[in-house]
Amino acid sequence: MGALLQDGHGRTFEYLRLSLTDVCNFRCSYCLPNGYQKAPGGPANLSVDEIRRLVTGFARLGLWKVRLTGGEPTLRTEFLEIARNVASVPGVRRLALTTNGYRLAERADDYVNAGITALNVSVDSLDPQRFADITGHDRLAEILKGIDKAREAGIASIKLNAVLMRGVNDDELHGFIKFVQAHGLALRFIEVMRTNDNVPFFEQHHLSGIEIADRLAALGWQRLPRAAGAGPAIVYSQPGLPGEIGIIAPYSKDFCASCNRLRVSATGKLHLCLFSDHGLDLRPLLQSDAQEDDLVDRIMVLTGQKAPAHRLHQGHSGGTAHFASIGG
Ligand code: SAM
Ligand code: SF4
User: Fold this and answer.
1) Sign for the pseudo-dihedral over CA of 17, 63, 55, 187
2) Which of 15, 122, 219, 269 is most buried, with most CB under 10 Å away?
3) Tens-digit pLDDT profile for the chain (328 aa)?
4) Could you tell me the pTM of the whole model?
5) Is 125 in the pocket of ligand 1 (CB under 6 A)?
């Protein structure tokens, strides 16, 4: 493993979230309520070779976990080729995918063969009508079938992501508990976050994850110790029973202290924080394998400048219009 990548606040980075495209076929009400709108004349997405060089540079600095995200990453025509390339970069030990589950049932075997070892599937409601209202697609049954297929295909780590929304799905805690316990699955409740495009939605529907944590504790769920390389979720389980529920609560105190991730957009911009004002361009250093040392130096210098915490509490959610543009 290479030298560890650190910032000026004692945090070490092991985990890269890489967006493959801004494009999405869903219309989630908190993300792209009017669907994906193509911005005219923007730069192309990183090519397969640029992605391989990028991940090689990060892996030299000790990053061992990569998550492919988007937009909907599986819409990239070269998706499997990208996954294979990333999985074979020396030092990459875990390749994860975050997806809305589109065509998962048909493609789960291909994902495993391409080297994907962990999967997060967005399922914001277990009620078919509500799922359709949130995402714009009446596809809950198809996506749940995809999750079954992914397990059969041998993906060991499968998590459901559910964005927590007051007045939308906050009455579904018991349904989600029954589901994760029946299927032995992990679920992550993510607090809805404010972006530049969703301010009224956020103000109407934001619900603190701590409220859900309190409800779980009242039902006898217990907090689990944080696993090595784990994300920001505070994870609970009910002793003696299968299934776990994690809570990602970026508005809670000290959320940023354990940050272990960096993000790169589909066009090669490094985002030191999900809520940063803009990305820092790495693409000029991805044009040939001979630039690898310069790329590594630049990643180290830029990461050293990461701010200690986001400024959400001051009403500042950065320059991001929606998370489809950076991968959430
Ligand atoms: N399209 C894929 C999907 O939905 O899983 C990957 C990209 S999506 C941007 C990644 C994650 O971010 C999803 O779990 C999604 O629910 C979450 N997300 C998007 N916008 C969000 C917001 N404003 N607040 C909280 N989570 C959000
Ligand atoms: Fe698409 Fe994912 Fe955003 Fe939903 S959350 S609109 S699936 S990018």
Assistant:
1) negative
2) 122
3) 555 898 888 888 999 999 999 999 999 999 999 999 988 888 999 999 999 999 999 999 999 999 999 999 999 999 999 999 999 999 999 999 999 999 999 999 999 999 999 999 999 999 999 999 999 999 999 999 999 999 999 998 999 999 999 999 999 999 999 999 999 999 999 999 999 899 999 999 999 999 999 999 999 999 999 876 677 899 999 999 999 999 998 887 777 887 888 999 999 999 988 878 788 999 999 999 999 999 999 999 999 888 777 877 777 777 788 888 888 8
4) 0.95
5) no
CATH number of the domain bearing residue 59: 3.20.20.70
Q: Residue whose CA is closest, atom 4 of ligand 2? A: 28
| CA 323 to ligand 2: nearest atom | 3
Of the chain, the end-to-end C-alpha distance in Å amounts to 27
| Number of domains composing the chain | 1
Q: Is the CB of 232 under 6 A from ligand 2?
A: no
User: Residue 1 domain-assigned?
Assistant: no
Residue 2 lies in a domain: no
Q: Is residue 10 part of a domain?
A: no
Residue 7 falls inside a structural domain:
no
Measuring from atom 12 of ligand 1, which residue has the nearest CA?
328
